[in-house]
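note to self: the first set is below, dont mix up w the second
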Amino acid sequence: MADLTTVGTPEDPAYIEDHDNYFDVILKGDLSAIERLADVRMPSSGSYKAVYNPGGPGNNPTGSLDLSTPPPGPFTVASSDHTIAITNDLNGSLVATYVETGAPVMRDPFSGQPIGTLLGAAVIDTVTGATIWCYQDPNNTIFYASFAAASAGATNLAGGLQTTTAIDLLNTTSIAAGTNTATLSGSISREASLNSTLRFYTVLDSAGTVVDPLISGGTLRPTDGARYRAAALSSANLVSTTGSSIATSNGATVAFSFSADGAKLYAPVLSLANGSDSWFAFGAATSDGLEHLTRFSAHVFGCEDLKGGGDRDFDDLIVRFSVAQSAT
C-alpha cells in the first residue's frame, strides 16, 4: 500500500519529502486476499502512538493538531484516530512519483516545488501511458518526477499586504552546542531591482535580544534602535561561516547552505548593497520602525526591501530554510 495520487498532480512539500512514497505498508497475501482489502485504520491514540510525516520532530512536536498554533516545520502534524479507504490500483494507474538521487534538490522558496530542467522521459508505462520524467536542478542534481518541475525564476507576488506575521527563527537548540554542529540550508529567490545580501546573527530569545559586545554581560533589544543594529551586525553576533552571506540576481533562485553552532537561535537581516539600510526580522529594530519580513509558511519568509514599506509585496527576497545536524 502506498500514498499515491493520479499522474501529473503537483505535490505538496510533505509528499515531496517522502522519498519512498511507493512503500508505506507492505503486506503478503494472494491476489484474492489483497483485492478484498477495503480500508486501513490508524488508531493514533490510547496505547497506539501517533504517526508523523517524514522530517518532523518525532513524538514531541510543538503546535496544535488543528494548526491554530503552527508547528515549527512543514512536516510535523501528528495523525489522529482515523480510517483510510483503500483504492485498488492493481493495474498501476496511480503513479505519482518523486525521487531524489543524491544531494537535496533545489526547491522554489515560495511553493516548495522542486526546480529542474526537463531532460526527457525516464520511464513510460506502456499500459497506462503514465510517464516519469527526468530533471536536472540548477546545481546539476538529477531527480525524477511524474509532475512538472518548477522553473528557476523568482516568484512575483501581488503587493499591498496589509498585515505581517512574525517569521520562524533558525532554531538549532535541539542540536548540541559545539563548533559548526548545525547545517542551515535552503533556497532564496529575488524579485527586486535593488541588490541586497541576506545574513544571520545570533539572538538570545524569540524577541530578538542580542549580546552587547561593548558591555560585559549587557544585552540589547530591538527597541534600542541604532545600538541594537550595530550590535547585531558586529563580528561578535554575526554568523561568518562560509556561505552564510547570501545573494542572488534579480529574477533568479539559488540554493544556500552553511554551518553554524548548535544550541542557538539565529535571526536573518537583509542588508542593501548601497549601504542605506539593513532590515531585521523585528520591526522595532528597523530605521523606519516598520516590519520588512513576514512569514508565508513554516520556515518560509519574504522580505520587503524599500524604506517606508515599498509596495508591500514581500517578494523582494523569499527564503525557504531547514535546519539539520551536520554530518560527523
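second set (the one i keep forgetting abt)
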Amino acid sequence: MDLTDRKLLNLIQGAFPLVDQPYLSLGEELGIPEDDVIQRLTELKRQNVLRQISAIFDTRRLGYKTTLVAMAFEPDQLHKGALEINKHPGVSHNYAREGSYFNLWFTLAVPPDHDLEGTVDRMGRDTQALSFRMMPTIRFFKIGVNFDMVKEKGSSFNYNPDGNGSAKDQESAKEAIKEAGKDWNKAQELSESDKVAIRELQEDLPLTPRPFDAMAESLGITTQDLFQRAADFQDRRLMRRYSAVLHHRRSGFRANAMIVWEVPPERAEEVGMIMAQNPAVTHCYERPTFPDWPYTHFTMVHATSTDGCEEIEREIAESTGITERRLLYSTREYKKTRVQYFVDDYDRYREPQPAENAARG
C-alpha cells in the first residue's frame, strides 16, 4: 500500500459519503480521479485488506438478543468446532484466544423470537465443546474500531487519534460515551419498510461509479430517499454509521488483545468511563463475573505488535488504578463480519419455544 491507499482507507472507515457518486467524492478529497479510487479499492479488496463497505446497525436496538460466548475445546477439536460455529448468521466475531481455559470466543446475535440460551446450548452440543459460558453485556461504554493506516495506530471514532485533544475535545468525548450508552439495550419499533431497507443497506457496496442506484431501485425509491432513510436510521440510533471494515491483520495490526479487568462494583461506571476515553480502546463493556472469573470490564485493543498492546494495557492501568487484569491474545481469526439482520438463514438454528414444545408433546 502506498500513502494514497492508506489515506483512502482512513477516509472510508469514517463517514462514508452517502451520495450518488461516493468514489468521485472520495477522489476529490484525495486529489485523484474516480476510477483511480475504484481501482485502488478493488485491489485492496483482492488483497483482503478491505472486507466490505456497508451500514453498521445497533444489534440490540433492532430487537436482536446478543451475547459474548466463551467455549472450551480440546486442542485438536478447536478448529472443527470454530468452523461449525461460523455457519450461524448471527456469529459476527469468532477468535481463538490464549490466556484462559476457554480457547474460543465469539459474539452471537439471534432474532427477537429466538431463544439465545437455547441456541448457545445447541451450538455447544453440536460442536462437542467441553464447556461454554455466556457473558452478556451488563453495561455498554464504547464500540467503534478505526485503524489509522497512516500513523499505524488503532483508535476509536470518538477521539483524536493522537490522544492529545484539548480539554473541550475530551469533554465532548465524555458526552459521546454517555449518549452512546443511553438506552443501548432498548429495542425500537420497526416497520416492514424499515426491515427491507436494513436488508439492502447491510449488503456490501459495489465498487462501481453509482453503487447506490441498484439498491434504491430494489426498494422502489430514489437514491435521495435512500440517503434520507439512512439519515433517519442514524437519528433513531438504529444505524451507527455507514463505513468500511478492514481486515486488521492484513492492514498491519497483527496484535489483537482482549484485556479483562477486575473492577470493584463501586467503581464500575467511573472506571468504564475512563477506559472508554482511551483512544486505543475500541470496545469497552461490563460483563458478569463467575466464581472462577472475577473480571468485570472487557476492553479490546489492536496494535502492530504485542508490545503495543501491552503499552496500552499499562496506560489503562495507570489511568484507572486497576491492577488485576489478564490479556487474552487472539491466535486465530475465524470470522469477522457484520451481522446479517432479517434474513431467513436464522430459521434453521431456531430452537423450539416452550409453547411449541408443549404443542408437539
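remember for set 2: The chain is about 35% helix and 25% strand.
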